[in-house]
Amino acid sequence: MALKRLLQLVFTWWNGATAGTLLTTSRSGQFVGEDEFGNRYYRKPGKDRTIGVERRWVIYKGEADGSAVPPGWKGWLNQTVQVPPSEEKYQPREWQKRHLPNLTGTSGAHRPQGSILRAGERPAATGDYQAWTP
């Protein structure tokens, strides 16, 4: 089992952090906080010479999925806000929906009317469509 985990660290990026990310995190990463999904957020204080701003990153709990980052943390990662959600009392607005991960490929995925994966009848054509014929 240890060999499998070692190979995943070296050769895959979708199963969590790679060996390079873990090395960078241990050497120069400053822990900032953790979200409700168990994702951990880090930064390297000071401006990075290559990007001109502070470098920030996330180590996902489990499979790497960008949609698993809540809005407050997304704003911090993208340099939209400077104060991370762990250092402020973030209260979602009443119009904001609860965060959901990307449901594509699951039973909870959006299936519009007319989809072959949705139950029911497909709506009739409205007559504004003309099939192309060569």
From TrEMBL:
Residues 86-97 have a biased composition (Basic and acidic residues). Pfam families: NDUFA12 (PF05071). InterPro entries: NDUFA12. It comes from the Bacteria. Residues 85-134 are annotated as: Disordered. This is NADH:ubiquinone oxidoreductase subunit NDUFA12. It comes from Camelimonas fluminis.
